[in-house]
Amino acid sequence: MIETVLVKGARAWRSVAGNGTSVEKFVKRRYRKAIRVEKGRLATQYSNQDSVVIQAKRNPEDKRGIYMKGGCDLPSLFLAGPMIKDVLEQGTVAIARPTVAVGTSQTSQVLQTLEGIPEEHIVETCRKLQIRPTFFKPTLFDETFEAGGMERFGDFPKSAVVLSVGSDLTRSLHRHREHGFLVDIGGWWLNQSLDKAIQDVETVKWFKKTFEPVGKMTIPEFVSNMELIVKHLRDQLGSHLIVMNTLVVEPLSPTHNFQLLNEDHVTRKRMFNIALADLSKSQGFHVIDVDRILKENGVRDQVDFAHFPVEGKMPVAKEAFRIFRELEIV
Amino acid sequence: MESIKLFLTGTDRLRDMLCSTADGGRKLSRGVRELVAEQYAGKAEVDVVFEPSVGAASLRQAIEDGSSQLSESAANLVVTSVDAEFAAGDGASADAYESDMLAVIRSIKANPGSHVIVLLASTIDPETIVSNYQREESDPTSLRVHRYDLAAMRLSFEEGISVLDVDRIIAEMGAADHVPAFLEYSEGACQAIANELVRIMDDYAFFDDRPLLPQVGREDA
After folding, report:
1. Searching chain A, which residue's CA lies closest to the CA of residue B200?
2. How large is the ipTM?
3. pTM, whole model, 2 decimals?
4. Contacts of B195 (CB under 8 A, 6+ apart)
5. Which of A246, A249, A324 would you mutate first to test chain B, the one with the most B CBs within 10 A?
6. CB contact under 8 A, B217 and A300
7. In angstroms, rounded to a whole number, what is the distance separating the alpha carbons of residues B86 and B92?
8. Closest residue on chain B to A320 (Cα)
9. Mean pLDDT, consecutive 10-residue segments, chain A of 330 residues?
10. Is A16 exposed, middle or buried (0-12, 13-18, 19+ CB in 10 A)?
């Protein structure tokens, strides 16, 4: 109800004042920071758009953290918060994702942060594409993290890191012609009003001159990148790694004959899921089998592989919760 | 009236998915034959032949040694299913399946006008939930189905055959309600699969005056 009123109010405001005004940005920042509090018998849950913190009455100093980096499928895991609240007898658990993760989650981008890109190489790119310099910092490999908007709980260890294959599956990167670093232009488009982005023709021209497309990731690149990420997370942090796979079928697709189609496009999701299972076998990490969960639940109403209907989110969260319990994180 | 010879080869599960009880299935009151009779009355009728087989390797062998009726059947449409691989003990690897099916498909396509449709399988195994594959001695059933389904899709690219995406159909309906056991589908799911086969046949123009859509594949393209 409140969401509906807010959406209608925002539309009315934009029709008068235009998109992306400073007033709108201010309201958005305040809304994102708003913290909802739900008290339970054992623990209290604090949540905002990017984080959930569950604090038990007993021994709150014992902290465990679940850090997520990936695409639009990851926030389903926030629904594990109430499940944790009901069983958490002691300590504090945080589930969090970076405030803006779109366009920074492909494994090639994550790995390039370990190489240490000189600040002077990225200044112009950050300014022109409105990318934060922290996008090029190896934050995934930091030992601790803060729950965004709830810094008062302090730092949390990365007991588990949750990734999803979605970014490697779908995103197309561009490489800086001179300095070699990678960016995901999709992030720039998605993080602002499209009207504004399209008007900025000069930036588009600059981008075309400065960057070259590298296309989508291949399966061997994905496997190699994941092996390196697993090694770093284990060696540096001792974290558990959990990776979400993806729905492989195309709901309501009438296609039955692929002889005139692009093979990679049609089979890519299934190939990534198989590669992920093989990686789990060789590397020993856990997989949240989103493909199985969504198929069991029914996917007729699903618009795409990464945006689940509400009925699909809860079973995904339940499976994540089961794995968190198995790993004794909660 | 057009008479279409539909040759099914696989396990009893294939017959359950496509045939009425009158034609040897165990679940459907209206199989593909009855559906075509209803929807295309006076235009086409389907004659169903079923031959048991347990996987692509045995089917290839049967075709090569002449023990399969397939060679003499002059079938318009040959339908098989990846789930038959699970009837052959440990089953073949996906690569071996692809290689055997390639030989089977080329043998069938050697008869002008013969078309091939392979049913994919649902990856859902209600008894097996895997979250860490390192604990599994061998590929779990679900992963094996993924590999077979992918191999069948590759054959569609290369040989121009059609795949009937059972995995998608079951997923749309919700496998929790329609897969009581691994590779066992509910009556409703089997009906949806039979309906889908009729739709695909219609796409190929089996029921009207257009020339049949050829299964060319890449090598001949």
Report:
1. A256
2. 0.95
3. 0.91
4. B35
5. A249
6. no
7. 9
8. B131
9. 64 71 66 84 95 97 96 91 97 90 83 92 90 88 94 96 93 94 78 65 90 94 97 93 96 90 87 98 97 95 79 93 96
10. exposed
